[in-house]
Amino acid sequence: MGSLFDYLNWRGDLSFSQAEINEVDGMIFSLLSYIDFSGIASTSHEESCAIPLRSVVNSYFTKHPDPKKINLGLMVPRDILKLLRVVKDTVRFRSVGVKAHVSILDPERQMQFSATTFTLGECGEVVAFRGTDDTIVGWKENFNMSFMEVVPAQTEAVSYLAEAAAAFKGRISLAGHSKGGNLAIYAAARSTEQVQDRLTSIWSYDGPGFFHKMLNDPAYIRIRPIIRTLIPQSAVVGLLLEHEENYVVVKSRQRGGVLQHDGMTWEIVGSSFVHLRHVTGDSRRLDRTLNQLIHSMSLEQREQFTESIYQLLSANNALTLTELVSMRKKWIENGRRVDPKVYRTILGTLTALINLAAKNFWDDIRHKN
To answer: Residue 291 falls within a domain, yes or no?
Structure first.
């Protein structure tokens, strides 16, 4: 089976007017949104401000002549840099316009948000929302989703899409990987009916779900037919919280677990990913365990656990996971000074998780026998 690079080698000579945008293209745009184009791409939504992707990428590598020194963090696959070099020379992507690149990190609001709009000429636009990056604030916001119905990045996504739709009157597709997929769906659900009617597709690649209240909202139900949720066969992130829409299971060349979250590892045949019938048994068991844990905790308990984890990770004032790992000895030493209540909260939650995991494992074994 092929990779994203095989797809670009096969389909890269066809423009979007010759072959319409598909789920693989949506993943490519989602992955490109992880790149920081600040100071290179325009921040404006106006059509005239779009810069050809080839020019943007060339400027990016002029700004960063040594790829080894580009810090993408622990969570962003470095193969995205190779992807950048390849897409800029394809007929399909080189003339795609890049505009409205926004990147916001606000520790006070506990918000990490970034989005980029890609213009396809007469074929419309693609609004791509970035997933969680290397920042601890970004991960804190992810945890906040377990007890907050709305997090700041979701509100920002709604505003971003409204501005994009106001500046461009054609058809719009939304895409995002990880948290970016959640943002794409949320922005669409909270848009006006006039904007919703212009949306052609919403791709969420292994993105977490929502609270039941969101899934029962008429605005969400209205866009549900165009939501396309794709998750790897050993999904972890993409099964968190609740999903009402059907999801498509995709084959990853990684053997299992969190590593399959990396969209660069998803296998491709033709112009789509390799689809499977269902997720693995381990994935179903983990999904059941995590959701049982979440539903067994009150919103207050979820918030206490999230704040405890954040206090522990922030004990040494690290801003990113990369910094946290690099100073792990000092972090462990300073972490000992954290309030004992923090440890008790974390330990109690992890103990409950382990007990649930063990119970579900043995229940499955007994069921098979």
So the answer is: no
